[in-house]
Specification:
Elements: E1 4-9, E2 14-16, E3 37-43, E4 49-54, E5 60-68, E6 78-87, E7 90-98, E8 104-107, H1 124-127, H2 130-133
Antiparallel strand pairs: 1-2, 1-3, 3-4, 5-6, 6-7, 7-8
């Protein structure tokens, strides 16, 4: 199972990891307005949503993609997506979504000596205080999301 992401913003706009009508076609979650994300989703090659993280007002998205490689192999042994939320410096919840084994693990924080659950280095953008920025933000309404087709090359093996 290979995964891509999309985020729904508070205004209802959907932002896709891959969008052939945008330049650049692929973006990082660093390009997202961190304090305006209503929910963050991972979906598979068939367009099926396999994970959703709902963010409350004042929460900021945590997302990383970790890859485990073996010497001499071109394909990863495992890919793990870390997705969750934090408020100020406190992690509220974080999920570890594994592509190959198709399992999901949940934690309320990181464990430094664990092979997948170790902490992240935060960017300056992620370090900003969300409480002050979101004091007057209204709770977003639930939404209905329709999934368009993923990028045309999604699921095809590519060498990087």
């Amino acid at each position: 199972m290979k995964l891509q992401w999309f985020a729904e913003l508070n205004d209802g706009k959907l932002v896709w990891q891959f969008d052939p009508e945008r330049e650049p076609v692929e973006i990082s979650t660093d390009s997202l307005p961190l304090l305006e994300i209503k929910n963050f989703n991972l979906f598979d090659e068939k367009g099926k949503i396999v994970f959703t993280s709902y963010l409350d007002p004042g929460d900021m998205l945590i997302y990383r993609r970790r890859t485990k490689m073996k010497m001499g192999q071109q394909e990863p042994v495992e890919i793990c997506h870390l997705a969750g939320s934090k408020r100020e410096e406190n992690i509220r919840a974080i999920a570890f979504i594994f592509e190959r084994s198709e399992k999901i693990e949940m934690r309320n924080g990181f464990e430094e000596k664990h092979p997948w659950h170790y902490g992240i280095v935060e960017s300056e953008r992620e370090m900003m205080k969300s409480e002050k920025k979101n004091k007057n933000r209204k709770k977003p309404k639930p939404s209905s999301i329709s999934i368009p087709n993923p990028s045309p090359d999604f699921g095809k093996s590519e060498k990087r």
